[in-house]
Model the fold of this input.
Amino acid sequence: MTTVADAVGAALAQAGVRTVFGLVGSGNFHITNALTAGGARFVAARHEGGAAVMADAYARVTGELGVLSVHQGPGLTNALTGITEAAKSRTPLLVLAPTATNPRSNFYLDDAALAAAVGATRVRVDSADTAAVDLARAYHTAIGERRTVLLSLPLDVQAAPSPHFELPAAPQPPPRDLDQAAIAALADALAAARRPVFLAGRGARKAGKEITTLSERTGALLATSAVSRGLFRDEAFSLDVSGGFATPAAADLIRNADLLVGWGCALNMWTLRHGTLVGDDTTVVQVDLDPDALGAHQRIDLGIVGDTAATARAVRDELDRRSGGSPPPGEWPAGYRSADVADRLAREGRWRDVPYKEESEEGRIDPRTLSITLDGMLPAGRTVAVDSGNFMGYPAMYLDVPDADGFVFTQAYQSVGLGLATAIGAAVARPDRLTVAALGDGGALMAIADLETAVRYGLDLLVVVYDDEAYGAEVHHFGPGGHPLDHVRFPPADIAEIGRGFGCAAATVRATSDLEAVAAWLAGPRDRPMVVDAKVTRDEPSWWLAEAFRGH
Ligand SMILES: Cc1ncc(C[n+]2csc(CCOP(=O)(O)OP(=O)(O)O)c2C)c(N)n1
Done:
């Protein structure tokens, strides 16, 4: 006899779910087995907190639906921080959440209240009769509306008999007409602009080509928010990231723009440094699918509701129409793409070109020197995942990435401890690339259980711990005020030895010469992850931290 659990698992596999992350208990045992029997791969994490983040990172990198399978009650609550991050990031994530419906059960919790509290959508499988429709609603909401959906699966309903079923197709939304007046207004603004800059966010991840083409046609410079870093990696007039991680040259060029166009980009305090990257006279335009996103963080002069690729194409067509056909590239306005700007970007466009005072000391390496040296050693085909903390800008700014899939930044909830699982999910998604997990010692030790997961799956993973033996962000936040720092400083921990205990290759790095061990590991066969415990200098706060504190 097949049950609802069997039918739901099989239907998801048949719908194309390839990979599921989770941790199996009694409530999700059968549904997980049904998924794998249907051809999906199950990645067994050691902590649900890690599993949720792995599923999120996997979805970000592959563009597929992320799927998480947990036990009822504590399995779900353990996963909550990752679920919250995914919900805030609008990651399409389906959480298979068994529920104990008897309030006297130890495992009981109010999962509707819990989903509402973290911004997830809850869909309940009410009965065997409605299972196909309920599952389809959850599945299509997650994908179509880019939502994190908690599929509530009562234990008694899961156990009820059910025939196999296929997922009903998604309802087709009516095609959205572009707002022609708004397209014309953006074309006007671009035609008038002398120094346009495009800022692309996550909503532009699939529109890189169209936005680049329009930037060439209009002389615009290209930049991204942190989450879309890498999108314009190969473009000559790319400024890399806007916001706290921007180079001084990029920040200066953005500040001097006369037109800023945000494409699928929240234009929040991080991307615009609390608005200080927007000049007083700069015209600001925002293009987003979601009407609520328009002007939510930054005053705008024009808001366009629409798909970013379709809008960029339509604006280009409008400009071509106005010039009586598509003019040859030689006739495109130079705009902000002058020889001077090209020259400046060639000299100062990357953080590694910005001079700094070397602060390595006996027994401790300057995190900038560490990052720059690693950048030169690592293969170009790489994925970089970064945790939260004082250290985070060093890998985010100095480690180059090949494209937008190469940078995974799970920071919408600003939680420490998500970096390792982010890297694991990304490594499962892209086994063809080396994955780098850049962590603080606090974040690394918070999430360490899933280092075993990385070893068990033999992931091609380099874990770099920027080890300042402290919650450095808090030290630098409160230290200047003269507060006691006893609770945010720690005695040295031998993280390399901890890594070896998990089965990793490992090295303690106090100077660039210690990185020879990394070179040896990189040479192959890389059949087990490597942990680098980099004892970094710790006297100075990272300068972008001051920016972050303003957001508290
Ligand atoms: C889950 C969670 N707990 C606590 C915090 C507060 N917090 C922000 S940064 C930080 C320190 C992180 O330390 P570490 O990972 O060692 O990085 P560092 O700041 O030292 O570079 C803490 C505790 C948080 N953001 N998230």
Summary: Residues 166 and 413 are 35 Å apart (CA to CA). The chain is about 35% helix and 15% strand.
